[in-house]
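On clarity, I found the account of how folds are encoded harder to follow than it need be. Since the whole study asks how a given chain folds, the encoding of that fold should be made plain. For the editor and my fellow referees, an illustration may be useful. An entry of this sort, consisting of the sequence and the corresponding backbone structure tokens, reads as follows:

:::
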Amino acid sequence: MNLSEDTHLTLNMIEEAAASLLKPDAALARAARNADTDYDTDTWQNMTSQGWLDILRLDDPASDGVGVRAAVMVAERLGYAGRPQPFIGVAMMAMQCLMQCSNKALAEELMSGIAESGKLVGLAWQSYAGALDANTSAITARLEGGNAVLNGRARFVLAHGADTFIVAARAGDETVLCAVPREKLALEHEEMADGGRSGLLALDNVTVASASILAQGAQADQALGAAIELGVLGTAAELLGAIDRSLDITLDYLGTRKQFGKLIGSFQVLQHRAVDIWMQKELTRAALKAAVTVFSDPEATADDRRAAASSAKARASQVATFVTGQTIQLHGAIGFTDEYELGAYVNRSLRLAAQLGNAALHRQRYGTLVKVQEQ
């Protein structure tokens, strides 16, 4: 797809702003991990003031998909900077879901809260086992007089500190999306590989008024499905950023560490391994770029987007695992220590590689969506 001059200009401005605001800072990432929020609130407010939490709504039929492209760009920069932020869970997944909900008044109220003041809205649908599909929610909804009574649990909620949760429940064969305030449910925090946390929600006969039901049936399935696929794409982008920074840290180390009186970067075998990492990083970038093009195409079907998201995530997760092992070996034991910068990227990559499906899951899903053409 050939992008218009205006789109290029907008994306360049966002890229420059993101590079300026989101600089690598492992110390800040460690401090945020140990805070109650497990993200840096100052960074979040700066992202809010930049308009990045509302970035998806830049899209219109003539925009070349600038909203999705810009959101992916910000996610990648967050990965490069090593800044754990609830951007994917809130500004990508929750916003995408709300944009397609039929209860426009409530959806607009929640989106305005996100965009204007950085309020957290989390999307909760995954079962305890963590299945990716939208119709596997373990939360049930009993519809009574227009209201919904919710029971069950949802795991792996990215924006675990949210003020409001968009809860996907099953009412028979139908999906119901409900806006549930934090105080109406039980919330536990589960620690992840990078020291951050995800949310585990428990709902016990929680009554949701009809005015708080965001969507039902096909509309709910469509909204939730679109949100999940965009989250998968955003996670692949953040992984690419982490891979990119891990390689930069490693190249700096190879250019300063000496052994036998020589820079270890002068050893040919290590140069070859660094090139292998670079090649895998660029293959990941190509897969992500191809997926973004599909997401930005108004003619693309839901299955097209699922396949594109799985292609990018399978590649990113596999490469992140490869790069993690290679960069640690090239550094030696210092590579996985918490005090050294690379350690923060190793742990973050481990989490993101599994988040919203690992490489094996997405390869399998891609295989069911894209049939091999025999010649």
In short: The first helix runs from residue 5 to 21. The chain has a mean pLDDT of 90. The two ends are 28 Å apart (CA to CA).
